[in-house]
Specification:
Strands 2-1-3-4-5 form a five-stranded parallel β-sheet, sandwiched between helices. About 35% of the residues lie in helices and about 20% in strands. The protein contains five helices and five strands; from the N terminus they run E-H-H-E-H-E-H-E-E-H. Helix 3 packs parallel to helix 4. The chain starts with a strand and ends with a helix. It is globular, with a radius of gyration of 14 Å. With about 140 residues, the protein is of the alpha/beta class. The chain binds 1,3,4-trihydroxy-5-OXO-cyclohexanecarboxylic acid. 1,3,4-trihydroxy-5-OXO-cyclohexanecarboxylic acid binds next to loops.
Length: about 140
């Protein structure tokens, strides 16, 4: 299978920001862990990160139009909680998307308890740190 792992706003600072919440592994470290996991299953994986909402929309559109991936793992960061543009982009594409969060958003501030993306995603994983991404890949593989 071919996976695309997308990280949204502020996730480029993972490992450097709020280490008590997100840990010390950088996004490169996390992506390397995901790539190693995919390799053991002979799956392919590509990575994308942007802090810009429209670029994330474009990334989803391109994946759809070019039919380049079987499934998408998406940590939209804070966009999760309010971006109707990303919600519509996920709804527009026929590729299954798993919503991912490293932290347990339900154990944090009230505004993080709601997601405008979950309803249009195949599934949601949160709270397992970098392993949330791997759990999402396992879930998508089992569901497809
Ligand atoms: C996050 C949770 C979001 O609420 C937050 O805005 C992030 C990261 C997570 O991975 O736990 O930037 O998506």
């Amino acid at each position: 299978m071919k996976f695309l792992v997308i990280n949204g706003v502020n996730l480029n600072l993972t490992g450097k920001r709020e280490q008590s919440v997100y840990g010390t592994a950088t996004l490169s470290d996390i992506n390397a862990k995901i790539a190693a996991y995919c390799k053991t299953n002979s799956d392919e994986v590509a990575f994308y990160q942007s802090n810009i909402e429209g670029e994330l929309v474009n990334c989803l559109h391109t994946a759809f139009l070019e039919k380049s991936y079987d499934a998408i793992v998406f940590n939209a960061g804070a966009f999760t909680h309010y971006s109707y543009a990303l919600r519509d982009a996920i709804a527009a594409i026929d590729i299954p998307v798993a919503e991912v969060h490293m932290s347990n958003v339900h154990a944090r501030e009230e505004f993080r308890h709601s997601s405008v993306l979950s309803e249009v995603c195949k599934g949601v994983v949160c709270g397992f740190g970098a392993s949330s991404y791997i759990a999402a890949i396992v879930g998508l593989k089992g569901a497809l």
